[in-house]
Design a protein that fits this description.
Shape: globular
Helix content: 40-55%
Number of helices: 10
CATH architecture of the largest domain: 3-Layer(aba) Sandwich
Number of domains: 2
Low-confidence stretches: 1-23
Structural class: alpha/beta
CATH class of the largest domain: Alpha Beta
Strand content: 15-25%
Number of strands: 11
CATH topology of the largest domain: D-Maltodextrin-Binding Protein, domain 2
CATH superfamily of the largest domain: Periplasmic binding protein-like II
Length: about 250
């Protein structure tokens, strides 16, 4: 009986040790979405820097693995990665994933090209104003894409915001709706910061939808997912209280 008890204790200790070891280094699957995430960006971007700081405050070592967004999301859904970010919470996603407290906030801008006759007199006041217009969206961005479809917009989804800006400049689509800082950076990149080229693009005065809250989208299958999420939220609260969160935002002009 003593041998059996000792064996059970050893197995339990091994399992506990494995759990602690898994919690020390946590895998995040993310894609490229400047200025929030990017392999070539300082600290891997705004959202990644916040996540790293919150994890450090919680005693978690964040390990970022970059891949196309669809693959990253599948990795989280399957449980091989703890979370992906930055994502908006939605009814459609709530059945598959958990969500952290907000890591940052923004708003969705509506960008158009001044050379396009179809949007020469475009004014946005409500979703129905998108009816019949070709709107560029991103694959997998259902929180934005579904309302566009419901409003009667002719949604065309692509892999990257850069593709949408190229199509917009060629008048192949009429509008692009996405996070405003993301769109602004993409237009600057496409125009080479040339003021004349920048001036051919414009934002509608009113944004699309309410303020956006970006969060971790968390696996329900990853080991220790619940406790890890609680620790992350506690770490996020710590860096907010300490002033580090505000310091990070300030670096990105927010």
């Amino acid at each position: 009986m003593q041998v059996r008890n000792s064996l059970a204790i050893a197995i339990l200790a091994g399992l506990l040790g494995f759990g602690l070891q898994a919690a020390d280094s946590v895998r995040f699957a993310i894609g490229e979405w400047e200025p929030y995430t990017g392999q070539e960006l300082e600290a891997n971007g705004l959202a990644a820097e916040i996540v790293s700081a919150a994890c450090a405050a919680a005693g978690i070592k964040a390990h970022f693995e970059f891949s196309p967004w669809k693959r990253a999301e599948a990795s989280v859904e399957g449980g091989s990665s703890f979370a992906t970010f930055p994502y908006q919470a939605s009814r459609e996603r709530a059945g598959k994933f958990g969500f952290s407290d907000p890591i940052c906030k923004s708003s969705n801008g509506i960008l158009f090209h001044k050379g396009n006759s179809r949007t020469a007199h475009f004014v946005y006041s409500r979703p129905e104003d998108l009816k019949g217009l070709k709107v560029g969206g991103l694959l997998g961005s259902d929180v934005i894409n579904l309302p566009i479809k419901e409003a009667g917009g002719l949604l065309e989804e692509v892999q990257s915001v850069d593709q949408n800006i190229t199509k917009l400049a060629l008048d192949r689509i009429d509008l692009v709706i996405d996070d405003r800082p993301v769109l602004f950076q993409a237009v600057k990149k496409a125009s080479g910061a040339d003021p004349a080229k920048l001036g051919t693009f414009a934002f509608a005065d009113k944004g699309f939808g309410a303020t956006t809250e970006y969060r971790l989208m968390v696996s329900r299958k990853y080991p220790q997912a619940g406790p890890l999420l609680a620790r992350f939220n506690a770490g996020l609260k710590k860096i907010t209280t300490s002033g580090l969160y505000r310091k990070i935002l300030k670096k990105y002009g927010l």
